[in-house]
Amino acid sequence: MLVTPPARFALALSLAAACSPDAGGAASTGVDASSTAALATASASATGTSDTGAAPASASAAAATASGSSAPSAALARTDGCPEGMVRVEGDYCPDVEQTCKKHHPEYERDQERRRKAEEKGQKHKSTVSERCLEYAAPTVCKSKDKRRLSFCIDPFEYPNEKGQLPALLISWTDAKKTCEGLGKRLCTEDEFNFACEGPEMLPYTYGFVRDPAKCSIDKPYRKRSKKLFRYDKCMQRPACKQHLAELDQRLPTGSLPECVSPFGVYDMNGNINEWVELPGKKYPDRSGLKGGWWGPVRGRCRPTVDFHKEDDYGYEEGFRCCADTKG
Fold it and tell me: Pick from 213, 271, 261, 247: which is nearest to 87 by CA?
């Protein structure tokens, strides 16, 4: 599928029914694998968005404190060896980390208490409450014997990679992969997303160790789907479907929260929309993973990966960004 470059991106968007959020931090989705994708614009002009600079691509996140980190100027972001509009991520990545939660969200604590009581009675506890940590112990501990050197390019914004545009949604892993490849790029891998999100300091959140809904588009009240939602193009042609989608949608224009930026200068990797990544070593239909969380009351941090959504699944909170290999 050929996708035209900025400023007007169009991509094949499809949608199947989306259900309630799972405890792992994503909404479960239906599948319409037999349907063909139709071209639909996935961006909209933003109003009132911030135009402050991005974070630096400095390999150090030493400025991060227990209350978070603030990112300096975008002028320091590395772009060498990368296609236009991408930033370079390079450094030593820890595959296995230990992040200790000091305080959980009250909703999660109440749910855990209900679980404990149910288990005491020999009952099963079914939960849709996501594990949300309000504060992690600093620093994060690397449990791996050796770190791995990573060097790659990544879009600083969610697709269509234009600051101030609403990120694409209602797209499957398969279509996201084709879209990136049509631009001469590829989907990011799970490890690449982790490192671009957390930086060398292995931050739980892009901005530090303390969860902050004011910094990233997270923890918005969950809105339950009550009607069937069709594929994007079909939904846009049906007033009832279009209206219900608008009722569910809580995206923000990408890059509009200046503090929701990683140590490498990559925006919105926590919250806003779930992002498709590739899980190396897996086979169809399990090569797909979702990272970063979305706008709802879910984990919304760097490391967790939701891996039970298949490659042809669709959801109203699912989008992506692209990566690429460095040159030189």
Answer: 261
Helix (H) or strand (E) holding 234: helix 232-236
**Predicted confidence (pLDDT) at residue 113 exceeds the cutoff of 80:** yes
How far is Cα 113 from Cα 201, in angstroms, rounded to an integer?
Answer: 33
* Dihedral (CA of 320, 238, 164, 12) sign: positive
pTM of the model: 0.79
φ, ψ of residue 18 in degrees (nearest 5):
-115, 140
Instruction: Report pLDDT digits (tens) over 9-29.
Output: 333 333 333 333 333 333 333
Of 201, 220, 208, 214, the closest CA to residue 273 belongs to 220
Confidence at residue 328, expressed as pLDDT on a 0 to 100 scale = 73
Q: Quick one: which of 162, 158, 154, 156 has its CA closest to 5? A: 162
Domain ranges of the chain: 18-43+66-72+86-156+184-277+289-325
